[in-house]
Design goal:
Strand order of the largest sheet: 4-3-2-1-5-6-7
Radius of gyration: 20 Å
Structural class: alpha/beta
Order of helices and strands: EHEHEEHEHEHEHEHHHEEEHHEHHHH
Length: about 350
């Protein structure tokens, strides 16, 4: 396989699954964590390695190292692997997704921004989602009439904060996720609920038109629910571990035990909460955006630019959502082709710079 984003949590879990099933790693693509990358090279012996920056090439313990986005695309074109696991973070992951699909490869997709920004122009038949929420929906769906598909959210770092205090939230505060440790950007996205908005858009592209919603489940043990038209609801329970959806991306008829089962007696109880517009302002455009999912590129670009400003101390936490809502009102024309996706992205970033 080709693994894009090998040093992140999904990349690390992917390598564990690959080792378990004796899958050769042809290409490793990583960012700036060269220490971990060198350990991965030693253990998995990839044929090719790509890093983000030119200055890191000489630090990599491998004799076939390239750098930059163009190198990722070129290496993919030259590879024999039929599976690409895309665990890159941000809009950076879009071109590799498009390239992999154009080459006829299967994409195990954890890069949310690919479908959020460009879902209208992506052949989803080539994609196997490895977000736990979309995996959960895929796992639950059967040949029965569906009323609504629901994914769950943790609520993020501020789910228990006094709403009045959110305007004072710092970057360090956003990283105190109640359930687990993730990368910096995705943890901020969890705190604003942008992450869940993205996942709803992904679900819309993956599973088609229909009703979609999200709720908070504080223990992160239920990842998805399906309301069927007959009045029944089925939930997907699993311990939070990305190795399960990754294993199914490799073999969708997986029969082996991947995770220990959830022990409901130890859990004792579950708590569900509504996602409110007061705590998560982005939620006020949820229904409208799901009716116009091609505008996902607008909220993605505004989000990435605003997070960069927040991390640089230029704006406050609540301004992330405010910027997104303002930009969404200004940019209401959806892209008509892939080139326009990139044009809109550039225009919004320039506007917010």
């Amino acid at each position: 396989m080709i693994l894009l984003g090998s040093t992140g949590s999904i990349g690390v879990n992917t390598l564990e699954v690959a080792k378990r099933f004796n899958i050769q790693i042809e290409v490793l693509v990583a960012g700036k964590n060269i220490t971990l990358l060198n350990k991965q090279i030693l253990e998995h012996s990839p044929k090719v390695v790509v890093v983000a920056n030119k200055e890191d090439v000489l630090k990599v313990n491998h004799n076939n190292v390239f750098y930059g986005e163009d190198a990722i695309l070129s290496v993919m074109e030259d590879s024999k692997s039929e599976l690409v696991v895309n665990a890159l973070v941000g809009f950076l992951g879009l071109r590799p997704t498009l390239k992999a699909i154009s080459l006829g490869k299967k994409v195990a997709l954890a890069n949310k921004e690919s479908l959020v920004a460009c879902g209208a122009f992506i052949d989803v038949s080539r994609i196997q989602p490895i977000d736990s929420e979309h995996f959960g929906l895929w796992y639950l769906l059967q040949d029965r009439a569906v009323e609504k598909m629901i994914i769950t959210a943790s609520g993020g770092a501020f789910r228990d904060w006094d709403i009045k205090e959110l305007k004072n939230a710092t970057l360090a505060d956003t990283q105190k996720h109640p359930n687990w440790s993730m990368g910096q950007k995705i943890t901020i996205d969890s705190a604003t609920m942008v992450n869940k908005m993205f996942e709803l858009l992904e679900a819309r592209w993956l599973f088609g038109e229909g009703k979609y919603d999200a709720i908070i489940e504080t223990k992160s043990l239920i990842h998805a629910l399906v309301d069927f038209k007959d009045g029944s609801t089925t939930a997907h329970f699993a311990n939070a571990n990305m190795q399960l959806p990754i294993a199914f991306a490799i073999n969708n008829k997986m029969q082996e035990n991947i995770l220990p089962h959830v022990d409901l007696l130890k859990i004792g109880s579950l708590e569900f909460r509504e996602i409110t517009k007061e705590r998560y302002p982005i939620w006020q455009i949820k229904d409208e955006l799901l009716k116009n999912p091609a505008l996902g590129v607008v909220i993605n670009s505004a989000n990435e630019a605003s997070i960069e400003s927040f991390m640089g101390g230029k704006i406050g936490f609540m301004n992330i959502s405010k910027n997104i809502l303002d930009i969404y009102e200004k940019f209401q024309v959806p892209p008509k082709c892939i080139d326009e996706v990139f044009e809109i992205d550039r225009e919004i970033r320039d506007f917010l710079s």
